[in-house]
Write a structure and sequence with these properties.
binds NADP nicotinamide-adenine-dinucleotide phosphate, 41% helix, alpha/beta, 2 domains, 7-stranded parallel β-sheet, two-stranded parallel ribbon
Length: 380
């Protein structure tokens, strides 16, 4: 038996791979990813070695086979023989790879996330006993910003904040149709925004929050030399952000998410097999408690004591710095209007005795936003 995984060089996929390597089943793991097999192996080894997680025996890497594959190419860029070889004997296919650029070009997002998944389904068809795990996102709920989202909900009626969300919605629909047409079983997991309080050194998979931290580093920090008003020079900077002052966001620790994913996948795999019937089980991999804006404000204030953040429904007459934030992060501010919660019935059923995660509090978030630790680690 073997396991196939895409996206193992990524922030979440590398954590999943680490768990797969630590498992006692000792199955062969076929890693599909960009680049030559050798460079792909170097990249996944570096990404996994740095992580916290279950211990991995040094000889576990002998069970890993790296295969160069690109989601944007027909049949992943593999010949029919290579595709069949990659799928041979697979009991599970993990599809973690995706393009996450929220403001990304529509055709690139579609080609990677939708057409790429179609190619992964073609591969899964060559492994008739395999259980498919597709990593979607809790943000597939799109602009349904309030209310309690059930795990079986899937609708485009409210529209989407980003093209990325839309591609994930389209892909979930495609997988539902595929399981029905082919008599297959799949688990769709929907993590919320994943965070880590141990930001990765440069060159290793970064968390989405890093994007915000980089905006500060790349946009505001270079200006700090000329502008003593900026908080990194000890100044006080009032900053209004557009959103709902009572808005919330679901953030989940990435290491916890990976462990939950493995358990959810194992439960799905146990349900797959003779007489199991076709269908999809969708599971919210979310935190039981949402994070409110004051927590994020406190976290940023620990890093930049002079920053005076407020959230207002509309930013009228933006200051120079507010205009900068709107210019560079306007698409992120769109998420500041959410107050929704996520049902976790399937998650609790599937993770067994895994305890609930600790709160993502201001201290945790402040470490997650703090790239100085990551910069120092990169410099060592
Ligand atoms: N991170 C989150 O907060 C979060 C939350 C909810 C859902 N998710 C979902 O979780 C999954 C993993 O996300 P992540 O955080 O690990 O993202 P990530 O760090 O950006 O990693 C993306 C992965 O996809 C691979 N990939 C991208 N384009 C590809 C292509 N054309 N061909 C082959 N591989 C390609 C990347 O390979 P390269 O290294 O070669 O670029 C990388 O391994 C995604 O499906 C995402 O939608 C993530």
């Amino acid at each position: 038996m073997s396991v196939v995984i895409t996206g193992a060089t990524g922030f979440l996929g590398s954590r999943v791979l680490r768990h797969l390597l630590a498992e006692e089943t000792r199955e062969t793991v076929t890693v599909l990813g960009r680049g030559s097999p050798d460079t792909l192996r170097e990249r996944v080894e570096a990404a996994v070695a740095w992580l916290d997680g279950p211990p991995v025996e040094p000889d576990a890497w002998q069970r890993v086979r790296c295969v160069g594959a690109d989601l944007t190419r027909p049949t992943l860029g593999l010949t029919p023989g290579e595709l069949a070889e990659a799928a041979a004997g697979a009991a599970q296919v993990w599809h973690c790879a995706a393009r996450l650029h929220l403001a990304g070009d529509q055709s690139e997002l579609f080609s990677t996330n939708v057409r790429g998944t179609r190619a992964v389904l073609d591969l899964a068809e060559q492994a008739p006993d395999a259980h498919l795990v597709y990593v979607s996102t809790a943000f597939v709920a799109g602009r349904r910003d309030a209310g309690h989202i059930m795990e079986d909900d899937l609708s485009d009626a409210d529209g989407f904040h980003t093209r990325y969300e839309e591609t994930k919605y389209t892909t979930e629909r495609m997988i539902r149709a595929w399981t029905a047409a082919k008599g297959r079983r799949a688990t769709i997991v929907r993590p919320s925004l994943l965070v880590s309080d141990r930001p990765a050194p440069a060159g290793l998979p970064a968390q989405p929050l890093d994007y915000v931290a980089r905006l500060v580093d790349d946009t505001l920090r270079p200006r700090a030399d000329q502008d003593p008003g900026l908080p990194m020079r000890g100044g006080v900077l009032p900053m209004r952000l557009q959103g709902d002052p009572h808005g919330t966001m679901n953030l989940l620790q990435a290491d916890y998410a990976a462990e939950a994913l493995l358990r959810v996948a194992a439960a799905g795999r146990a349900r797959t097999g003779a007489g199991a019937g076709a269908g999809v089980r969708t599971v919210h991999v979310t935190h039981p408690r949402e994070v409110a804006f004051p927590t994020a404000r406190e976290a940023l204030r620990e890093l930049y004591p002079g920053l005076r953040l407020t959230v207002v429904p509309t930013v009228r007459n933006p200051s120079r710095h507010e205009a900068l934030v709107i210019e560079h992060a306007g698409h992120l501010l769109d998420f500041g209007v959410q107050r929704r919660t996520y049902d976790r019935t399937h998650l609790r059923e599937d993770v067994g005795d895994l305890p609930e995660p600790p709160d993502v509090d201001a201290a945790y978030l402040s470490r997650a936003f703090d790239r100085s630790g990551a910069r120092q680690r990169a410099a060592v």
